[in-house]
Design brief:
- It is a single chain.
- By secondary structure, this protein is α/β, with parallel strands linked by helices.
- It is built from eleven helices and eight strands.
- It has a three-stranded parallel sheet, with helices on one face. A three-stranded parallel sheet has the order 6-7-8, sandwiched between helices. Strands 1-2 form a two-stranded parallel ribbon.
- Strand 3, helix 5 and strand 4 form a beta-alpha-beta unit.
- Helix 5 runs parallel beside helix 6.
- The longest helix has 14 residues.
Amino acid sequence: MTKETDATRHVVRVAQTVENYDATAKQKAGAKLSRIPIKVMPGEVLKKPEWIRVKAGSPTTRFYEIKNILRKNKLVTVCEEASCPNIGECFGKGTATFMIMGDKCTRRCPFCDVGHGRPDPLDVNEPTNLARTISDLKLSYVVITSVDRDDLRDGGAGHFVNCIRETRALSPQTQIEVLVPDFRGRDDRVETVPRLYKEVRPGSDYQFSLQLLKKFKALFPNIPTKSGLMVGLGETDEEILTVMREMRAHNIDMLTLGQYLAPSTSHLPVKRYVHPDTFKMFEQKAYEMGFKHAAVGAMVRSSYHADSQAHAASLAR
């Protein structure tokens, strides 16, 4: 068992017995996924192709400066918690996707590396700390996401509002993008093709995800809607194209599409590495379908270059 102590909790990475189970620990990898109803079946570990390249953090960039600022203000990023492969590039440029409401999610998605466990109480100072950090960094565009908090009556919606209000008060010119949980509405993200939902997204509903985004667009037609897909989980190219068509039919404006990379051998295995030429085909088809912006490529993630995505989408209105 590997422990990472930070005054009050530790991280557990291997499956726990009933006798030593600690619900307050942050469970990762095998500890997190050993109790899900749909068991992860191990598969062949595919060799990464030459086009999958990760840029490491460098002391000559802002990488360590950003990490120090985050720790000083007791903030969490999805970049770190989800083991994003782009963290070296993004932190190096002084950007990050803030993850509010703690570092322990109440759900256990088998493709995600964010820790699971009994969440800590909400930090009432987080909205202020977040807003101050965004102001100090002079960010013109910021992405705020969160863990799922099914333990809270409102799913954390009120805390999201407080974070946005505080940020607007200190940085009125900063554009804010939110990647919200479903607040117990059973999900607003697409992620994969419907055939794989039971395995990849147990408990979620593909049609509900699409309908939720469509309803939001009907209520707020001037706010861009965005959703993403992963490839490499066992889907076919035609299934991806079909989902893209259905996303457009539900008035989703922006698309992100990237390669799934397994965070550990306990997570769902990668079934294929999609060639760059195929990603180019998906991008071309996306614009033909009418997406205002499509960020498509092996290393693309939901908030990767989010400011550029939003700018390009606004020009396409």
